[in-house]
Amino acid sequence: MQMAGAITPVASSEFLDYVGKQSGQRIMDCYQCGKCSAGCPTAYDMDLTPRQMIRAIQLGLKEEALKSSTIWMCVSCQTCSVRCPVQIDIAKAIEAVRLLAVAEKAPAAEKNVKLYHQVFLKSVEFTGRLYEMGLSVAFNMLSRHPFTGMDILPTMLRKGKLALMPVFKGTAEVEAIFARIKR
Ligand code: SF4
Ligand code: SF4
């Protein structure tokens, strides 16, 4: 949404056009208020906050955006998107950058983060929801750190925070979603 009387700045770059088209967002409407970053639960661990990411896209800074940790630390919670006063779906814009990074095989800022995403999605595809125990074990094995984080397992199991066996629910629907996306 454009505010009445507001003048949208003009900028042009291949990267800006690409993200705008892929995400369907009017990136140039951002006036850097910072509300997105203020609400983001993972901004503390990003090298570019959501606001800075949008600025980077506005400026056509493709390399900086593709190699940022932001595209991998974003958990697509949509908090930024619902807070944006000019209704930019920032999560969607970040997703467009992430997909471009995968397509162009840009080196990821976070070690093993692509592997983590792959294992996460496989877990959801297989059980219809996240099977945390399976995710932890599979990720640890594939990243060759079999015992990382395993010290907290007994406590989590004892307190009922982690299920030993997967719960299958809505697998057919989730499978259909994955099949549609793959097509
Ligand atoms: S909330 Fe919207 S307008 Fe404000 S900085 Fe973020 S993207 Fe820009
Ligand atoms: S969608 Fe991503 S960038 Fe936006 S608030 Fe959530 S984690 Fe942060």
Give a quick rundown of the structure.
With 183 residues, this protein is mostly helical. It is built from 11 helices and no strands. Bound molecules: iron/sulfur cluster (2 copies).
Q: Your description of this structure?
A:
52% of the residues lie in helices and 0% in strands. It has eleven helices and no strands. The protein has helices spanning 14-23, 35-39, 50-58, 62-66, 70-73, 79-83, 90-103, 113-127, 132-142, 153-158, 171-182. α8 packs antiparallel against α9 and α8 crosses α11 (171-182). The chain is elongated, with a radius of gyration of 19 Å. Residues 1-5 have low confidence and may be disordered. One iron/sulfur cluster (SF4) is lined by residues 30-36, 51, 54, 83-86, 88, 90.
